[in-house]
Write a structure and sequence with these properties.
CATH architecture of chain B: Beta Barrel
Strand content of chain B: over 45%
Radius of gyration of chain A: 30 Å
Oligomer: heterodimer
Number of helices of chain B: 4
CATH architecture of the largest domain in chain A: 7 Propeller
Low-confidence stretches of chain B: 1-42
CATH superfamily of the largest domain in chain A: YVTN repeat-like/Quinoprotein amine dehydrogenase
Number of domains of chain B: 1
Helix content of chain B: under 10%
Number of helices of chain A: 3
Distance between the termini of chain A: 38 Å
CATH class of the largest domain in chain A: Mainly Beta
Shape of chain B: globular
Largest sheet of chain B: 22 strands, antiparallel, barrel
Number of strands of chain B: 35
Strand order of the largest sheet of chain A: 29-2-3-4-1-30
């Protein structure tokens, strides 16, 4: 009896815990909403999914409403057996239709512009697409007839009938292809079997559909795009060993230019070719006229694996494939590199296709109005101009040859993305300007926490080490992504103090760099400045230092200054955008801010410890919830 | 009245049964293996989960993998069908933390570290044991201290009645998927102490089974409903084994075992959109010869020697016309030596010392290119020291340390030896009641395999071993009465796996590499109860209940979208119920019915726990009907199995559909 009841309880517990199997429901699309839009039409995102997972996924972003829909294809075509398929490899639009290559499903999926299934073209191991008039051209790793050399093929497909009309044998493992006039160029990557990579482009005459030439470009070419001057830009990956990757420019016959650099992706827009260096996580714009490279100011340092790229006339879209087996992220930037929004995608978001239509999904979308992937930490340092001082050239460390841009990157490495490092703003007026991967909204209560290195004197909360800095905020009014708009001061407790000087300026000169103390025997003047003098402007707070027990300490201010209270004091280190005032001291209402500037607001040099200088070690958007809110439809 | 109601309820709810081999079968004389270790002192601290003898035969299990589903704490990965790969994951630490021992010697796979348990037949198997942590017997080879979870397979030992010299068994099994599986075995008593056993088996299956994908819309409308036939899942396999056993005194014996397995099979592959068949083929041959010698000196000193040579050949090719072809051959060789000694210092204190050495080679050849085969080699040394104490009947303790040094011939980095400890405790508060409180702590490394280190483009020669730390506490109780017997236990464990070896994207193109990246935290509970009720009219009811709860979460990096999520393919809840009713006639014939239910709860197929990665629970009901008859000196057995009785369309691994209802029929004769 005793044992029996024990068993009974055990059995009952077990049956309560276990849930039953229900119908296998086709997963719905999930909509997420992003703000800060600037775009028209829509953007399709083809997520590859891992081989064998059958998780190729087509997502869609309504750029006008800011709605990002996961699994848009599934919502449009719920009755497709085994969904979209295995490994999405390319997507393009042509003639009012969408075409998507699903590599391991051996098909080209043909859809209307809203991604409703029309038909499919069966091509084994198909890779990439190109169009001319009413014809579709598809590269494939294998031909319709097996050949001992293992050469791939390019197929011609009639878009009206979706039937293959012609086939031509090309090189080993042909990947991207593009068409210039009556010639089709396809890169032969090779190397999958032998580690003997191919290095050619096959040129195909579209009239006769024969290979007329093979041009040698560089080892392991995987991408080819045509620019506005009918030049071909080819990404050669090298052999991942001693042969380095390069970008090669051809005029159709001959190599015109070579740039030795890694190239994860490439996108042509107007007179620029954007090249994504996935290894160093930098985006470059190359001019089609003179091949000059310039860095695009969008910070990719927080990316795990930069992967997809699309440049359009008004925006840059870049994807992060993360670890390839979890959700990726799609980011949108202004052409100047200012981040506008981001959205969580499927696995390996690799291929982007812009369309003119902005659609809403029909039926049952689970709508989520939270932005999922913003970081609460600053992602970007725009400017770093320290006042002359003992930590200048040291925090961050200046190295021979660094320019202002390089110093900004060093500041990012120290304080962006919760890196935990620290920078010093130097003497009075020295400043840093930073931003987040999103706009900071002015909501109820404090909005921003800015971290420094202030601390209290033992046994006191009135005195300690306080090196107050004033916070300025700005909205990107002209929309150029740069902090060149009107600044508003966040009013601190000393704003109305009669001793506060509101209009003050200091000019630092290279010649005046003679302050060095015994601990800092190096130049105090910012060594990356080419000019011999510079002037800083702002407000000057009254001196706060006193001597207690023969030690220099400062009065801790009540509120509103950076590096004034310890970081552990959330309230003491956080700021409210509602405190903003204009140059005349009049309160202004700002819904959101794009840029934040902190400058050192005290001018005091102490014996032994040198000048007071504000230190900044990061900032946090207090409204940004870092934790992902995952959809749960089963509860 | 209440008592009876409860009993009926139990019969209705619970399940059951693992039947002991009827004692009348062969009990007169046996070439006895004298367990030198069978003193109370060295009895297992952590009692293993065991399936043996007739219990095994009556379960719905074709291969070892099927049988392991009935253990708690175990998750089986099954790619479906007779030929599909089957591996197990013990307590969520990863399948490569599991070691499988065949008659006391570990089965190795230096190439990928995984043993396909679907290849081991139950026909020649006497006993399967699963130990969490390690076998808590200090008299073992050094290597046995090394793995996090251990499965011991013991093949049938010969038994002879007085005057018997030869036993012959023949078995024929037919079933769904065109299964044909004949098996013959011969035992010969050569002298009083020396016996020879032979066992041979052939398996054929065309692997064709219907599977169905049915999906519905949230509105309830059917989205699609497709049935297709699984292709390229055929298998042809031949297994032959030869054993020689010699017991030359009450304490000493040696045995030799030769094993050969050959198979040729299709790899059915993932079912994805527009792909309903795959073209991968695999041929392999596993051969090994192993010897064991054991004796005892002065009643205090025991010595055991193991020696093994293994030669495994694998040929993989894929000539699917839609894919780029591949054609690879692999040859692995292994030499293994082990020497273990145990000394009884006092009645309450034993100590042991063991040293193992192993040499592995792998030759890899890509037949599509004209290049010389690549060769890899590895030397492994294990040195273990262990002690066991007991304080009266109350407390038993074991502590062991293992030093491992593995040197890969291609690696420039020298691997310094690594030391891992293990501590096992058992406390029995009341000598008269079989109630014990057990606990263990153990560290173990999973060393990178040849594939992890040197796989073309993917390997990373600088990998460190992956570390698993296990903490486990258990309460166990058992009672035996004339009317019933119960063994029950519950354990809680906390495991932490660090430096997990995972594939991670390398550089910018679609390439991967292996990295020590990943930390997994596992909290789990295993509960089990085995019960037998001896009823009137020679009925016996046996039940076996298992339940496992596991929370195994990824805690690698708080910035990952999957931080804190359950790791892939580990269900929170899983369990099984076995219920068996046996009736014995007056002349000793048996008839019975065995029912089993296996449940694997909801889980996710990728790191991120999102709806797109959600996998539904699956559960199957299996039934076995059997009869056993004795006709003079002949025994006849017949067995009918019906698996997945309700025809559930399920997948253990996503896109690998499992068979619907299927049957097997076995007829066996013994002399």
């Amino acid at each position: 009896m005793h044992y029996s009841s024990k068993i009974l309880v055990f059995a009952l517990c077990m049956s309560l815990l276990l849930s039953c199997r229900g119908d296998e429901i086709i997963y719905p699309t999930i909509g997420t909403h992003v703000t800060d839009l600037s775009g028209t039409g829509g953007l399709y995102v083809l997520c590859e999914g891992n081989m064998g997972s059958n998780k190729a996924r087509l997502d869609y972003m309504n750029l006008e409403k800011g709605d990002y829909y996961s699994n848009w294809y599934g919502a449009q075509n719920p009755k497709q057996v085994k969904e979209l398929g295995d490994v999405g490899n390319d997507i393009k639009q042509h003639g009012g239709r969408l075409y998507a290559v699903i590599n391991c499903s051996h098909k080209v999926e043909v859809m209307d512009i809203q991604a409703r299934h029309i038909g499919q073209i069966e091509i084994s191991n198909c890779r990439y697409l190109a169009f001319k008039d009413d014809k579709l051209y598809v590269s494939a790793y294998v031909g319709s007839v097996a050949n001992p050399e293992l050469l791939g093929s390019v197929y011609e497909v009639d878009t009206a009938t979706l039937q293959i009309t012609r086939e031509v044998k090309v090189g080993h493992q042909p990947d991207e292809l593009c068409i210039v006039d009556d010639l089709l160029y396809v890169v032969n990557s090779g190397g999958y079997l032998t580690n003997q990579y191919d290095s050619t482009i096959s040129v195909i005459d579209l009239t006769t559909f024969t290979e007329i030439e093979k041009i040698s470009v560089g080892l392991n070419p995987t991408r080819v795009r045509v620019d506005d001057r009918k030049q071909l830009w080819v990404c050669c990956q090298g052999n991942y060993n001693e042969v380095k990757p390069q970008v090669v420019v051809l005029d159709g016959k001959k190599v015109q230019h070579r740039i030795e650099m890694p190239c994860a992706n490439i996108s042509v827009c107007g007179e620029n070719v954007y090249i994504l260096d996935g290894e160093n996580k930098v985006l470059y714009a190359a001019s089609t006229a003179n091949y000059q490279l310039s860095t695009v100011n969008c910070s990719l340092s927080s990316y795990e694996h930069p992967y997809g790229l699309l440049a359009t006339e008004d925006a840059l879209y870049i994807t992060d494939a993360k670890n390839y087996v979890s959700s990726g992220v799609l980011y949108c930037y202004s052409l100047a590199g200012q981040q506008r929004w981001s959205a969580l995608t499927g696995d390996i978001p690799g291929h982007l296709c812009l369309v003119t239509g902005a659609y809403d999904v029909h039926g049952d979308t689970t709508r989520q109005d939270t932005t999922l992937t913003y970081s609460p930490y600053i992602s970007r340092v725009y400017e770093f101009v320290p006042g002359m001082g003992q930590f200048v050239n040291e925090l961050p460390k200046y190295a021979e040859g660094d320019d202002a841009e390089a110093m900004c990157r060093k500041c990012e490495a120290a304080i962006a993305n919760n890196a935990g490092g620290m920078i010093s703003l130097g003497g009075w007026g020295g400043y840093v300007t930073f931003g987040f991967d999103h706009v900071v909204e002015n909501k109820e209560g404090r909005d921003l926490q800015i971290l420094g290195n202030a601390f209290y004197m033992t046994g006191s909360t009135e005195y300690g080490s306080s090196e107050p800095g004033i916070v300025l905020v700005s909205r990107d009014e002209n929309g150029n992504g740069l902090p060149d708009d009107t600044w508003y001061e966040l009013r601190g407790c000393l704003y109305n103090d009669p001793l506060t000087v509101h209009i003050h300026s200091v000019t630092y000169t290279r010649a005046g760099d003679t302050l060095q103390n015994n601990f800092h025997k190096h130049p105090y003047y910012p060594q990356w400045f080419s000019e011999d003098e510079y002037t800083l402007r702002g407000a000057l707070l009254p001196p706060q230092s006193v001597k207690i027990n023969n030690q220099n300490v400062q009065r801790i201010l009540d509120f509103g200054y950076v590096d004034n209270k310890p970081n552990t004091d959330l309230e003491g280190t956080s700021f409210d955008i509602s405190w903003a005032v204009d140059a005349n001291g009049q309160p202004v209402t700002l819904d959101k801010v794009d840029f934040i500037r902190v400058y050192c607001a005290v001018d005091e040099v102490l014996d032994m410890t040198g000048e007071l200088s504000t230190e900044v070690s990061g900032a946090i958007d207090l409204h940004c919830n870092k934790q992902l809110v995952l959809p749960t439809i089963f509860n | 009245m209440l008592r009876r109601t409860i009993l009926i309820l139990i019969f209705a709810l619970c399940a059951c049964a693992l039947f002991a081999e009827p004692d009348t079968l062969y009990n007169d004389f046996r070439i006895e293996e004298v367990e030198v270790t069978a003193r109370a002192l060295t009895k297992d601290i952590i009692v293993p989960q065991t399936l043996k003898g007739a219990e095994l035969q009556r379960l719905n299990a074709l291969s070892l993998a099927d049988a392991l589903r009935y253990f708690s704490g175990v998750q089986l990965k099954d790619y479906g069908g007779v030929g599909g790969i089957k591996t197990i994951n013990i307590r969520s630490m990863g399948s490569q933390h599991t070691a499988v021992y065949y008659n006391g010697v570990q089965l190795g796979n230096a190439q990928n570290g995984q043993v396909d348990l679907g290849r081991f037949s139950l026909d020649n198997m006497e006993e399967i044991q699963l130990y969490n942590g390690q076998k808590s017997d200090i008299f073992q080879s050094a290597r046995e201290f090394g793995a996090a979870g251990n499965v011991y397979l013991t093949t049938r030992k010969p038994y002879f009645k007085t005057g018997e010299r030869v036993h012959v068994r023949a078995k024929m099994r037919f079933g769904s998927f065109a299964l044909a599986n004949p098996n013959v075995g011969v035992d010969v008593k050569l002298t009083d102490g020396l016996a020879l056993t032979l066992d041979a088996e052939y398996v054929y299956s065309d692997g064709k089974y219907p599977f169905r994908y049915r999906r519905v819309l949230p509105t309830g409308e059917t989205a699609y409903d497709t049935t297709a036939i699984r292709q390229n899942g055929d298998v042809n396999a031949v297994r032959t084994e030869l054993g020689l056993h010699h017991y030359y005194r009450t304490t000493g014996f040696w045995r030799l075992h030769a094993y050969n397995y050959w198979s040729e099979r299709g790899i059915p592959g993932a079912i994805v959109n527009n792909v309903w068949r795959n073209g991968e083929r695999l041929q392999d041959r596993n051969t090994f010869v192993q010897g064991q010698w054991q004796d005892e000196w002065f009643n205090r000193w025991s010595t055991r020697m193991l020696i093994k040579y293994a030669n495994d050949f694998t040929h993989y090719w894929n000539y699917d016309e839609r894919l780029l072809p591949s054609n690879n051959k692999y040859l692995q060789q292994e030499v293994y030596l082990s020497l273990a000694n145990k000394v009884q210092i006092f009645n309450w204190w034993d100590a042991s010392l063991a040293y193992d050495y192993q040499y592995n080679t792998l030759a890899r050849e890509n037949l599509l290119i004209e290049a010389a085969p690549e060769h890899f080699a590895r030397h492994s040394h294990w040195l273990s020291a262990a002690m066991a104490f007991n304080i009266k009947e109350y407390l038993r303790m074991q502590a062991s340390v293992l030093m491992t040094q593995i040197t890969n011939s291609q690696s420039s980095t020298t691997n310094s030896p690594r030391v891992t400890p293990g501590v096992f405790l058992s406390f029995r508060p009341y000598p008269k009641i079989d109630l014990s409180l057990n606990a263990f702590y153990k560290q173990s490394y999973r060393y990178p395999t040849f594939n992890d280190l040197y796989y073309t483009d993917l390997g990373n020669a600088n990998l460190r071993p992956e570390l698993a730390r296990q903490h486990s506490v258990e309460i166990a109780y058992s009672i035996q009465k004339s009317a019933f017997s119960i063994q029950t236990s519950a354990s809680y464990y906390y495991n932490r796996v660090t430096d997990k070896i995972i594939a991670y994207p390398k550089g910018q193109q679609f390439r991967w590499t292996m990295l020590n990246l990943g930390t997994v935290k596992i909290n789990g509970v295993d509960a089990k109860a085995d019960m037998s009720f001896f009823l009137p009219l020679r009925f016996t009811l046996r039940t076996r209940l298992n339940y496992t709860y596991q929370k195994a979460i990824d805690v690698t990096n708080p910035n990952d979208t999957y931080y804190g999520h359950q790791i892939p393919y580990i269900p929170w809840h899983s369990g099984s119920v076995v219920l068996g009713l046996d009736w014995q006639s007056k002349r000793g014939d048996h008839y019975g019915l065995n029912y089993s239910f296996i449940y694997v709860g909801e889980r996710y197929c990728q790191q991120e726990n999102t709806i797109y990665n959600y996998v539904q629970p699956w559960y199957t009901h299996d039934l076995t009907l059997y009869g056993e008859w004795q006709i003079q000196r002949w025994w006849l057995k017949a067995n009918l199995e019906i698996n997945n009785l309700l025809g559930q369309d399920y997948e253990v691994i996503q896109n690998y559909p499992m068979p619907k209802t299927n049957v097997r029929c076995t007829i066996a004769v013994k002399y």
